[in-house]
Amino acid sequence: MADSNEMTINLVVFGRTQTGKSAVGNSLLGSLDFESHCSPSSVTTGCSLGRSCRISGVTRRNGHELALRVRVLDTPAYPHTGLSKEQVRDTVRLALAHHFGKEGLHLALLVLRADLPPCPDESDHTTQFIQELLGPTWKDFTVVLLTHADKAEEAGFSEEAYLHRASSTLLSLLSLVQHKYIFLNNQKSIIKEERATVLRKLLSFIRQNNYQVLLLNHKE
After folding, report:
1. Residue 220 within a domain
2. Residue at 185 is within a domain
3. What is the pLDDT at residue 148?
4. What confidence tens digit (pLDDT) does each residue in 157-183 have?
5. 3-state SS of 110-172?
6. Is residue 118 part of a domain?
7. CA 150/CA 220 separation, integer angstroms
């Protein structure tokens, strides 16, 4: 909190190569802070912190509009095409401690593609990786973002129908994080109205946590 009329939320994004992880960060910030493009290999090799300008019209407190600032930590993909698990883990751990060590982390965003269902081994490795970074309460602070939802829509699936037909692997993951998930239409996610909708959903998850933050006690 910078003052009584402003709120800052701290977010970190995790995901595999080409899930749209860096693009999600850019959409939330309303900028092009993070490099994001189609590539046969992992694009992001280090952690990078992006900060939004003051965002109005998203949330209110005690009947008054509250300005919002968003801080997003973009991370290398895991698995990574050029870095080992240990290299990714240590890089992310140091960045989390450096950027959010004092204020804490509000939410971790696990980015998955709605058009590429996760396999059991992939899901297990991902959740284990996040737990190693965030600790035993990771489930309380993790939200699943399903990108490329427009492709599911083109195939005739509403969100409800998609989840009805979803794999047991994905459903188990959503259950682990207490059904905190958001569908993102990649064709619309950069639109201002869509951004505000996603931010409101994230704020609702933060309220569910009673505005608690995950304290990161890793030593640099």
Report:
1. no
2. yes
3. 87
4. 899 999 999 999 999 999 999 999 999
5. EEEECCCCCCHHHHHHHHHHHHHHHCCCHHHHEEEEEECHHHHHHCCCCHHHHHHHCCHHHHH
6. yes
7. 41
Res 58: pLDDT = 87
Q: What is the CATH number of the domain that holds 74?
A: 3.40.50.300
- The pLDDT, as a whole number, for residue 1 is 43
| Radius of gyration of the CA atoms of the chain, in A | 17
Torsion of CA 162, 163, 167, 171, to 10 degrees: 160
Q: Residue 60 belongs to what H/E stretch?
A: strand 55-61
* Within-domain flag for 1: no
List Cα–Cα distances, 132 to 13, 58, 92, 218, in angstroms: 15, 33, 11, 11
C-alpha–C-alpha distance, residues 214 and 204, integer Å: 16
Which domain, by its residues, includes 99?
6-209
How many structural domains is the chain composed of?
Answer: 1
Q: What is the arithmetic mean of pLDDT over 58-69? A: 86
